[in-house]
Amino acid sequence: MSRALIPVLLVVFLDLLGFGIVIPLLTFYSEDFGATPLQVTLLMAVYSLAQFAFAPLWGALSDRVGRRPVLMASIAATVVCLSGFAAANTLWMLFLFRTLHGACAANISTAQAAVADLTPPEKRAAGMGLIGAAFGVGFSLGPFIGGELSIYGYAAPIWVAAGLSAVNLVVAYFMLPETRHPESTTRPRPLSPAAFLKVARHPVVGLCVVLTFVLTMSFAIMESSFTLFAEHVRGLGPVEVGRMFAIAGVVMIVVQGGMIRPLVKRFGEAKLVPIGIALLAIGLALLPFAPPFVPLVTVFVLIAIGQGISGPSLHSMISRGATEAEQGFVLGTNQSMSALARGVGPTAAGLLYSNVSPAAPFLASSGILVFGFILAVAAVRRWSTAQQDLGPAH
User: Fold this and answer.
1) DSSP readout, 158-198?
2) Which domain holds residue 45?
3) Residue 122 is part of a domain; what is its CATH number?
4) By CB atoms within 10 Å of each CB, which of 71, 272, 287, 356 scores lowest?
5) Which residue, among 367, 352, 152, has the nearest Cα to 280 in the 3D structure?
């Protein structure tokens, strides 16, 4: 691993650690303010819908002014928004600060662009895997910390998350380098419909971006409704939910940090994407029928393996299929489509949970992934053909 990647990965880790702390608490915290199941999932949706609107803007801006200032601004805004979320005393304040946090969250797409700056094409899957591993570490420790600290009140872990973001800001100020190449500039306005359409029609990665939307939406449906299901159907509390997310995060660390490199070397990232999606579909179909604790954790592990295999492989395909000059814009738009999916997914989950059954969100997300598998086969075929035409360096 290049030493230049270390501060980028540290920034991602600290950011996701703070983000992960909030995950197991969000349902319980918002229910203390009188939130219904639909309002709980909408609280998750507004964050991602705001991110959908602004992620490509940050990606294009990082192409223009650099990765470092965009990451610094995003981290500073996270400190303010998490503090406001922890200090809120009404449900509308929760929605306000959650929405503002989503609008300012530029970390992952910009960090992915920084990794692309620092890695050659043939090592990009491993680089994206390291981002996934940093994500996994933060996302395993974060929910565990949040769940354990919930005994001091649901707001206490959120204040800790705000403090970690402040530490992250200091770390980024002193350690984070600028990685952008001088020629990495982007011309299109990222918020114009034509720009989104341009990426979706990209001859190499267009179907991959559409697949990102489908894959992320199905996962978001599960993620946003699982805590409701765990609390009201399985009788689990924030401590148990936090530990389950922690176990899933550890599995993602192992897969993305240690297994993805030899898997890509042997099979190639293109073959791994449909395999990961198939594992996800199976796991999500089994989830509502698995009782706690060992069967439920086993299914969670299967889901984590599927996500750990498919996620970085798909991101690598998108990064390798885009030129250096369009890295920030394409990855930012891809991240924005992911954010839109994370907005649509929780909204659908809340409606399904409230109006159909608690199991309906998981079965629906599994069904969506059946379509995703078919789309993955087409996307892989198009991408592989383009790579053969361009040569192995791409």
Assistant:
1) HHHHHHHHHHHHHHHHHHPPP---TT----S-TTSHHHHHH
2) 5-174+189-390
3) 1.20.1250.20
4) 356
5) 367
Asked whether residue 180 is assigned to any structural domain, the reply reads no
Q: Which residues contact 176 (CB under 8 A, 6 or more apart)?
A: 7, 8, 11, 68, 71, 72
Tell whether omega for the bond before 267 is within 30 degrees of 0, i.e. cis.
Answer: no
Domain presence at residue 222: yes
Instruction: Please give the structure tokens belonging to residue 354.
Output: 């409230």
Please give the full DSSP string across 342-355, using - where no structure is assigned: HHHHHHHHHHHHHH
Tokens 């219904």, residue located = 36
Q: Token pair for residue 81?
A: 């928004």
Q: Is residue 277 part of a domain?
A: yes
Q: For residue 264, what are its two tokens?
A: 């890509």
The helix (run of H) or strand (run of E) holding residue 356 is none
Query: What distance in Å separates the CA atoms of residue 65 and residue 39, rounded to the nearest whole number?
Result: 38
**Using one digit for the tens of pLDDT, what is the confidence trace for 7-57?**
777 777 777 787 788 888 889 999 999 999 999 999 989 988 887 777 767
Domain count, the chain: 1
Alpha carbon dihedral 211, 342, 118, 389, in 10-degree steps, equals 10
Tens digits of residue pLDDT in 143-159:
889 999 999 999 999 99
User: pTM score, two decimals?
Assistant: 0.79
Listed residue (63, 41, 142) closest to 110, CA to CA = 63
Buried b (16+ CB within 10 A) or exposed e, 136-171: bbbbbbbbbbbbbbbeeebbebbbbbbebbbebbeb
Give SS3 for 309.
helix
What is the Cα–Cα distance from 117 to 256, expressed in whole angstroms?
20
> pLDDT for 53-106, tens place per residue?
777 677 778 878 888 888 888 889 889 999 999 999 999 999 999 999 888 876
